[in-house]
Amino acid sequence: MKNQYNQIILLHCFPVPYRNYLFELMQTEATNRGIKFEVLFFDSFDSSRPNWFFKSDELNYNNAFFKPIYKKGPVLHLNIDLLFYVLRNRKALVISGGVWSSMNSIILSLIIPNRFVGWDETNRNDFGSKQKNYLFFKRFLINRLRILAVPGLEAIRYYEDLIGSKGLVQKKILNLPNLINESILESLKNQRLRLNEDLTKEYPEIDLTKTIVYWPARFIEEKGIMNFLDVIDNKVLSKCQIILIGHGHLEKQITSLIYRKNFEKSIIVIKSTTYEKSIRFYAISDFVLMPSLADSNPLSLIEAIHSSLPLLISNRVGNYNEVLLEGENGFSFDPDNHADMYLKSFKMFNLHKNELDYMGRKSKFLANQYFNSQKVIRSFFDSI
């Protein structure tokens, strides 16, 4: 890290469980290098996700909460006190999650572009990525910045489409994907026999004689749940049982479609629970399903490959290039190509468990290559 920066200030909308470990790692690495690190939150929580609520003293990294004077939706905040705090710290490198999704980030990117890192998960398949009304504004903001932090190849391709290859080559690109605590998932895997017993007691409808498919997804359009259920049939599901866990406004439609297609014995729907409870399902599952129509950079897939699980996924997930070797640790499909989706699903759902175990070892290889948390964070700080 360059000597002119003695502090890193990371801006985030509100605390979320899937980022806490990442921030803890960043603080540890910063401290080891003699750099102050802190996370500033625009708000305390998102009302649409009541399970995601943390107090300041529950977070194991330096943090501060600011009260917005204006708020629209879950992320569009304006915090005057936060802006003054950041601008007073003139030797701080500022990293913002989402360059254009917050008024705070927009203002700071305009005032301090040379020490502002735009960290964004957008990819070319996100529903809002090609809204023409905003393209000029997004291009203007990104062209001002010197440093971009991205989770993977699809985000780089998005920026290349946005500002051109000539514009992109002038930027410093830092790799900062979502990361998870690998040791927790490895510990859960070692407890598989106990978790088999615990979860089948809690959910007696789970049938462990079948191939268990874990499908974590919010019940919203982008996750492609209705699209996938419309395509598959009981021939696909005959040897498997899907555990679909999540919440959202499409819950009634999804449940209705499951019953209409006679999938109720093959698909168990579980309303979203705490993060600690939901990750237990990786330990008892044989592979992970994610047929999203659009998905920025799903942490679930990183959790899956760290859990040594194969994947059946849409090619529109943002970390598709990093989590999947086609045919080696799973399969992908275009969610608009229903014939391909059906064929890949039939093939994956009918693999023997020995074949899935072999694919799972390939997944673990990719997890260690791209998402080893300690290596990623050291490399990030080396690159600043």
Stretches where pLDDT is under 50 for at least 5 consecutive residues are none
Task: Just give the CATH class of the largest domain.
Answer: Alpha Beta
What is the subunit organization of this protein?
single chain
The largest β sheet comes out as: 7 strands, parallel
Spatially, the strands of the biggest sheet line up as 3-2-1-6-7-8-9
Principal-axes shape call:
globular
- Domains counted in the coordinates: how many? 2
Cα-based radius of gyration, to the nearest Å = 21 Å
The CATH superfamily of the largest domain is known as Glycogen Phosphorylase B
Give the end-to-end Cα distance, rounded to a whole number of Å: 5 Å
Beta-strand share of residues: 15-25%
CATH architecture of the largest domain: 3-Layer(aba) Sandwich
> How large is the count of helical segments?
17
Q: How helical, in percent, are the residues?
A: 40-55%
* Average residue pLDDT: 92
